[in-house]
Every structure is written in C-alpha cells, then in structure tokens.
Write a structure and sequence with these properties.
InterPro entries: Cys_Synth/Cystath_Beta-Synth, TrpB-like_PALP, TrpB-like_PALP_sf. The chain is of the alpha/beta class. Helices cover about 40% and strands about 10% of the residues. α11 packs across α14. The chain is globular and about 90 Å long. The termini are far apart.
C-alpha cells in the first residue's frame, strides 16, 4: 500500500524524470568577469563627451551700449560663439550625456530629434563625435542656411509642417528602432548633466558660467545679476537657469521673455493650456525657434520642459517689435537671431521700469543665442517682413518700432510702453 506521502514523492519523481529530457538553461561559469560590448562603447563615448566639454570653454560676455541708462549694464552672453554655433551646444551635450548614461543611446543607435534648427545642428555635431547616425525633423519653413548647417555635420534632415515635428520624430524612431531624444520632454532629465558638482570637470550650466566670468572680471563691481532674461522654445534653458538660481539661493530674478502669440505667458502665470490647445491662437510667422503655439497642449515632460515654478516674472512682447529690435542690436555691433531681439526688448523694458539700486549698478544678464546671418533672408529682409508681417502692420509697424526702440536707447524710456502708444498693430490687435 502506498502512503499519501510516498504517492506524492513518486509523482514528483516521475515528473522530474520527464523533465530530464529537456535541455536545461546554462549559466555562465564562475568565476567570470567581462565588460559588455555596450558598456565598453559607452565608457569610450562618455570619455569623448568630456573631452568635448573641455574644448567648449566659456562663451564670451559683452555689454550692450545702453546710452539712455548710464547706471544699467545689459550683459549679453554670446552663445553664437559655441562650437556648433548656438546656445544649444551645451544643451545638446547634456541631452546626449543623459541618453548615454541612461542607456538610451548605444553603439549604432539611430537618434531622432524634432527641432527648429539649432538643437538639431548641435545634436548632429555631438552624434558625429560618437559616430552615431542622426536625423533631424524640422519645420518646412526652416531657413535654408540652418538646414545646410545640420547637414554639414553628417545628419539627415526631414521637413514637416511645424505642428507635426514631434509626431513625425517619434514615428520615425519607432519605425527604425531608434531613439527619439525629445528635447521638449527630456530637458529636465538632462538637468543633472548640466552640473558636475565638485568634480574637477566644470558645470555646463549657463548661469554658473556667467557667475564664474563676472567674478573673474576685475572691471565688474556687481558680480551677481539682478535679473536674468531669456525667451523660450522648449523652456529648457530658462528652466535650468531658474533651478540653479533657486537651488543655491541666488538673488537673481528669472524673467521669461515671451513672444506675442506663444502660450507660455498664460501657462506660467495662470496655469493655462495644460489641458487645452493654443494652436488656433498662433499667428504666423512667429519668432523662429521660440514661443509655444502650434504643437497643441503644453504638457511638461512630453511637449515642453518649461518649469513654471522657477520663473519669477513674464514679459510678452510684440513679434514685429522684437524683429525691429534685432536690427537695432545688429546696428550696435551684435548680430543675433530671433531670441536676441526678444531678449533686448525685454531687457530695455526692465531697465526702464526697475527700481535702481542706490549704491550699485543694475545688472541684467541675457543671451545672444545664435548668429544673425541665419536670418538674413527672413527677419533681416524687408521684403520678407513686408510679406510675412502684413497682418501685424507690415513695414509701417516695423519702421515705427525701430524708431521707438532707437529713441528709447538714447532716452532710457520704456520701448514697450512707447511703441504701444505710437505704432500700428495691424489686423491682430
């Protein structure tokens, strides 16, 4: 008679005998020790990225010649001097470093990115350093010079309608087994790699660099800017500066300079457009590369990197006024792109309206993000302005704003207030 215990044992033994015929999974033998292929490649890639960081050095600072405000320094950081030609060089470095460390980019990974041009060029530069294929998905309105600049670094360029960039980039990455970098959603994830802490290799954070440069300048009495002014496309740069300032308790006010038909002003001030689209409110041509409009809802971590919590103040400026400010800046010897015009106009407004320190100069730090020659055929071209800005008042409005800004440069008055009173607003008032 078989007891229940023996029956169970016999059954298990029978099953075990049946399993013997199946091949068992094999383990690597102990002891074993080796680097994975990906790990070895990644270590080399990261080493090359740090070599690039050493070569980046500091982009130069220069003071804007502000005749009408003799006790104010508007200090531009000239990011067009970066190795790939724009502010996005350090940003692309940080994004790719994050993607390497997190394992998103490995040997042979095809990288895809949606961009207005500058981030794509800088990522193309970085990917070429690592021999990684890169494809830029850009708006079909991109300036030819920007598209050629991307291709010069060995990248492919795919042109789509402005509102379709993120959708198409994600589709291509999925179809081809690549990685969609998504600067709009992942800038905050790359934030850690803007900073190096106490490690000997210096932080790539833009504001850290400004502070280091001001501290080293014996001619500069005020070492910490009272204001930092910048526009936003993804929102990554101004948010990284804002987080840096808040983290270290620096007494600098972070001012977002927003374009006329961008939703960022309302997004930051009132929490709007997180669950509603502002695409139908966008009026062309906008200011290329900055502002948020045609891409639908602003979802942090998906379609934008804007961190409203670290922004202290928002100023919205007319697009045609910012275009005129680009011309004023160029005539003063500093040729910059669309964001530079927005930044100058906002900085002059702040200088004219701020309560001045009693015992020191007022210091406003801002950026010249990319070179003006990218826009010679567009925002510096009167025929293009007349055609594209017709609804904004055309050349009559452009010339009026140019006159107002030039006069305020000499008088120190507020150009936004003066221009609002004097200049036509066209059909979009």
């Amino acid at each position: 008679m078989i007891t229940p215990f023996l029956y169970v044992f016999a059954t298990l033994f029978t099953i075990s005998q049946q399993e013997i015929g199946r091949p068992l999974p094999r383990l690597s033998r102990a002891p074993s020790d080796e680097l994975t292929k990906d790990r070895a490649w990644t270590k080399l890639a990261i080493r090359r990225m740090w070599q690039e960081r050493k070569k980046m050095s500091h982009t130069p600072l220069f003071k804007f010649n502000y005749i009408g405000q003799q006790n104010v320094d508007i200090i531009f950081k000239n990011e067009s001097a970066a190795r790939s030609g724009s502010l996005k060089h350090r940003y692309a470095w940080s994004l790719l470093m994050w993607a390497l460390i997190e394992g998103h980019v490995k040997e042979g990974t095809a990288v895809y990115e949606a961009s207005s041009g500058n981030t794509a060029a800088s990522l193309a530069y970085m990917c070429r350093l690592l021999n990684v294929p890169f494809t830029a998905i850009v708006p079909d309105t991109i300036e030819d010079v920007k598209a050629r600049h991307i291709e010069e670094y060995g990248a492919d360029v795919v042109k789509v309608p402005l509102s379709q960039r993120l959708i198409r980039a994600r589709e291509l990455a999925t179809q081809n087994g690549g990685f969609f970098m998504n600067q709009f959603g992942n800038a905050d994830k790359a934030e850690e790699f803007h900073e190096s802490g106490d490690f000997p290799l210096e932080s790539a954070n833009l504001f850290h660099e400004i502070l280091v440069q001001l501290e080293a300048d014996i001619r500069q009495d005020v070492k910490i800017p009272h204001y930092f002014v910048h526009s936003a496309g993804t929102g990554g740069t101004i948010s990284s500066v804002g987080r840096y300032v808040k983290k270290y308790g620096i007494n600098t006010e972070i001012v977002l300079a927003d374009t006329q038909f961008s939703i960022y002003y309302d997004y930051v001030m009132y929490g709007r457009f997180k669950n509603e689209s502002g695409a139908n409110l966008w009026v062309e041509p906008g200011m290329a590369g900055i502002g948020y409009g045609p891409m639908g809802m602003a979802r942090k971590g998906e379609t934008t990197s804007m961190d409203a919590a670290v922004i202290d103040r928002v100023v919205k400026v007319p697009d045609i006024a910012a275009t005129a400010a680009m011309r004023v800046l160029r005539e003063q010897g500093a040729s910059g792109g669309t964001s530079s015009g927005v930044n100058l106009l906002t900085s002059m407004h702040i200088a004219a309206t701020a309560v001045k320190p009693k015992k020191s100069r007022l210091v406003i730090a801002t950026l010249l993000a990319d070179p003006g020659h990218y826009y010679d055929s567009t925002y510096y071209n009167r025929e293009w302005i007349a055609r594209k800005f017709a609804r904004h008042g055309g050349l009559q409005a452009y010339d009026c704003w140019y006159t107002v800004i030039t006069e305020c440069l000499a008088s120190g008055d507020d150009p936004l207030l003066s221009g609002y009173d004097r200049c036509p607003s066209g059909l979009i008032a």
